[in-house]
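Attaching the record inline, Q. Sequence:
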Amino acid sequence: MGHGGGGAMSAELVENVFAPAFGGRTLATLGDSAVVELGGARLAFSTDSFVVRPLFFPGGSIGDLAVNGTVNDLAMSGARAAYLSCGFILEEGVEMAVVDRVARALGAAARRAGVEVATGDTKVVEAGHGDGVYLNTAGIGLVPAGVDIRPQRAVPGDVVIVSGAIGLHGVAIMSVREGLEFGVEIESDCAALGGLVDAMLAVTPDLHVLRDPTRGGLAAALNEIAAGAGVGVVLSERAVPVPPQVANACAVLGLDPMYVANEGKLVAFVPRREADAVLAAMRSHPLGTEAAVIGECVADHPGMVVARTAFGGTRVVDLPMGEQLPRIC
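Structure, as predicted:
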């Protein structure tokens, strides 16, 4: 299970098994989506599979995740999604009403994101060999001219910005799955980020890195960027926006919010000269009202993320080994 959690074990699987087997310069960038040239156009291309349990949760469903997750992966390359494919893997015995509800949620999410589901596939596996409904989506979108967003572009001096409060999705899933109550309902932040990225690109096309911190949370995303670019990252722990309900839930569950998955947030590495304008544009968008500067990119300790604590010390924010909360996306 650790190999599917988005942490160190996932990275080892990709680096030691998949990347050598598949090869290719495009795959080697290891971004949220691949950017390829085809017929004179630059396309972003991404695929993702969704195995969340439960299928429906406060703030969304597996159908919403399938659309938003793929749309957001494309947006992290600066592309606006145009078309999606959708594969349903159904377990024998799942109620048709459940399949219909998932399909309707997926279709509604696609319309909200402005993307068309253009093709698909259905498979059925025997009872006991699935968990109701699994989904796979792939997406394509155009990358605007002059936009080059990828992990390797982070450089010392970049300002690190997160688009809002972290940890909501993972805690929402766990609260429903385990029947836990924290005095207030915690809803997933599941959302399509294409419009927010458009607002940022309107300020400057020179965004260096974008990443949506899903599996492994903010910690995994920052470590992947630091390793990919060979730079260090220094965070101000106090500046990271953690909602009180998430902090309280994580304290009860023994979790660190930095490692909890998000489904409607992004982290950006932005040139310092553009940081104030980009932050203002983010805060003017409904999905970025709580955007905050949380740190900077440095030349020291390349490949490592450290956080300055509220007590004046520092701690290393490691890449997690696996996922604290399994089956959250």
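The chain has a mean pLDDT of 93. The CA atoms of residues 103 and 319 lie 35 Å apart.

More tomorrow.
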